[in-house]
Amino acid sequence: MRQSLLTNRFRLLRILLAAAVMSTVFAATGGIAGAQSTAQTWEVQVGGGVEPKPPVSFEPMAYGPDPLTIHVGDKVVWAPVLGHTVTFLGSKPAPALILPGSAPGELMAGPGFASIGVTLGAGGLSASYDGTNQLSSGDLSQVPNATPVMTITFTKAGTYAYLCLFHQGMRGTVEVRDASAALPETPAQAKTRGQVTLGAITSMAQALPSMIKPLTAGTIHTAWPAWATASARACSASSTATRPSSAATRWCGPSPTRSSCTPSPSPPAVRRPR
Asked: Which helix (H) or strand (E) holds 68?
């Protein structure tokens, strides 16, 4: 019951925050966007917008803006894709992150760490999407010299959900409308809304340092809220066994679907396939 009330409180908080942000953005930038004759490019910030740095770094486990409404033929650019994935499952199950290794008790990285259905170029990853195929950025931090950007062109009207494979509850939605349909905002308004929302989540976390308590279970160091009404949970970004001098802790921002946080997808026993 307590968890249900907390989840409902997070959902209401996010709805009210989004409504306030939309009102502010529209007032400052001119209101509702109409139908467009040419394709547009939209920007979505992934997490805090930078890679977390040791010893402790707080970032929202969210995409911003979310949700996003665009036209058929428009492009959406996610950046920076660092420490997270941008994954559209289509009609397929989520790719596994961890698989059994060749030796007893050994684990290895699964297909969830790899890019799926996208092309890697000088500007990052790119693909077209109609809702049927599966697309995923994978772990771009493991790709040498890769630009941490993912660009998707949406070719069919519909509502498409996506998620981060590494962080439970980190999700987003893109609604694609026909080219003749009106949109609720322009790309500039949407970008501002996303930045304001993610900034507000981060500020909420940074304003509550007393709510964080470090816990250690074996070789995994994790920080959790001291009280369940904290606006988010914190999850470990690395293992002290593999990186004892650079362990970082990430703050998971409130999400209507969040029930827990997950540790880094690179535990000490994981062996990456060659």
From this structure: strand 68-71
